[in-house]
Each structure stands twice: as structure tokens, then as C-alpha cells.
Design brief:
Elements (H helix, E strand, L loop, with lengths): L1 E6 L4 H11 L5 E7 L5 H8 L3 E4 L9 H10 L4 E4 L8 H6 L4 E5 L14 H10 L3 E8 L9 E8 L6 H24 L3 E4 L2 E4 L2
The protein binds glycinamide ribonucleotide.
Length: about 200
């Protein structure tokens, strides 16, 4: 299965997918896409000889239309948003309907939406005094952090002293749950049955 991974920054989830791929040859990462011209995740792409694309409307970027054509030419089966922080245009989402997934560092539908990314999410969770947090992998629809939930895993945060501590515990989960679900897509085990996402054994 051919994937394109969309990133905006560090790329630790991209790295987790690449590490998982070592033992699962059915996952191929064919493209890394960013809303930036440069970001640490692009270094990971370079080290792994993966094509990189910058998408946006400014000079030096390609448009979403051009990106859609390039990804179709590459025969991309699945798009993985792994820390991609821009809202994707509706036309692009429709073109790849049910083939775009996102990882979010909280238990959706709580603590999602515009502005809810990275440490902002963990700050909000910390302030709420929630005793559990976690990671969510979901199908992407035109809204921020919205779409049917594919998988979630939670972690006890009742004893944390800072949002950074929550981030650390959640990131650990992200690095397991996201590659696992990408692997399930590669095995054809993620299905929509009676309007619900199910993962087959
Ligand atoms: C991850 O924690 C991911 O869940 C989050 O951005 C971080 C990217 O880290 N995504 C969102 O907040 C989306 N709303 P990474 O670049 O090291 O993978």
C-alpha cells in the first residue's frame, strides 16, 4: 500500500511509521508533504530518499490541485496526516474520500478543532483537570479534527504536574497507534460497515 504522509514540523510520527514499515513491507511511504518549505520532517524524508512536496499558495509551493495530480500519479492509496496543522481544502478531501486519516493528541471529540494542535491541546487538557487523555486516529472530513473515529487509546494522567508531561505520555501512544492503523489499512482490515468504521482481526 502506497502512502503519503503530511507533516508540519518535527516528524516523530512520520519516523514511527517508517520504523514500523521495516517489519511490514506492505507499507510504502512514497511522499512527504508539508505546508512549509523546510521543516525537520523533510530531513527525515531526505534521509529515506522519499519525495517531498510543499503545498500552499505562495511562491515555491504547489497548489492542492497539482498535489492531487502528483499523488494520483504516484498511486497513493492512503494519506496520513501526522502533525499536519493546516485545514485541507474540501475538493482535495472529496477526491481522496475515506482515504485520509489524522492523528490527534487527545480523545476526540473533546479537545479538538481550530487552534487545537501540539501543546495547545495538552494545555487545555491540563487545565480541564481531566484524569485521562490519549490519542485518536480518525478519518478526515472537511472540519478540523473531525470525522469517524478509527482507533483511540487512553492514558492515565491523574498524577501529571504539567502539560508537557501529558504530551510525553500521549506521544508515546501516538507512535504505536498510528503505525498500527496504517498497517491495518495496508492489510485491508479497515472497513466502513453500516456507517461505522470497524477494524477486522
Ligand atoms: C503530534 O502530537 C500530533 O498528534 C499533533 O501534532 C504533533 C506532531 O508531532 N497533531 C495535531 O495536534 C493535529 N490537530 P510530530 O511532528 O513529531 O509527529
Amino acid at each position: 500500500m502506497k502512502t503519503a504522509v503530511f507533516v508540519s514540523g518535527r516528524g516523530s510520527n512520520l519516523q514511527a511509521i517508517l520504523d514500523y514499515r521495516q517489519g511490514k513491507k506492505s507499507i510504502e511511504v512514497e511522499a512527504v508533504v508539508s505546508d512549509k518549505l523546510n521543516c525537520p520532517a523533510f530531513e527525515i524524508a531526505k534521509r529515506n530518499s522519499i519525495q517531498a512536496f510543499s503545498v500552499g499558495s505562495k511562491d515555491g509551493y504547489i497548489s492542492y490541485e497539482q498535489l492531487a495530480s502528483s499523488l494520483s500519479e504516484l498511486d497513493i492509496d492512503l494519506i496520513v496526516l501526522a502533525g499536519f496543522l493546516k485545514l485541507i481544502p474540501v475538493d482535495f478531501i472529496r477526491r481522496f474520500e475515506n482515504r485520509i486519516i489524522n492523528i490527534h493528541p487527545a480523545l476526540l471529540p473533546s479537545f479538538g478543532g481550530k487552534g487545537m494542535y501540539g501543546i495547545n491541546v495538552h494545555n487545555a487538557v491540563f487545565k480541564s483537570s481531566a484524569k485521562v487523555s490519549g490519542a485518536t486516529v480518525h478519518l478526515v472530513d472537511p472540519d478540523y479534527d473531525h470525522g469517524k473515529i478509527i482507533a483511540q487509546q487512553c492514558v492515565d494522567i491523574s498524577d501529571v504536574k504539567s502539560p508537557e508531561e501529558i504530551a510525553e505520555r500521549v506521544l508515546d501512544i501516538e507512535h504505536k497507534i498510528l503505525p498500527y492503523i496504517v498497517g491495518k489499512f495496508a492489510d485491508g482490515k479497515v472497513k466502513i460497515v453500516e456507517d461505522r468504521v470497524v477494524i477486522l482481526d
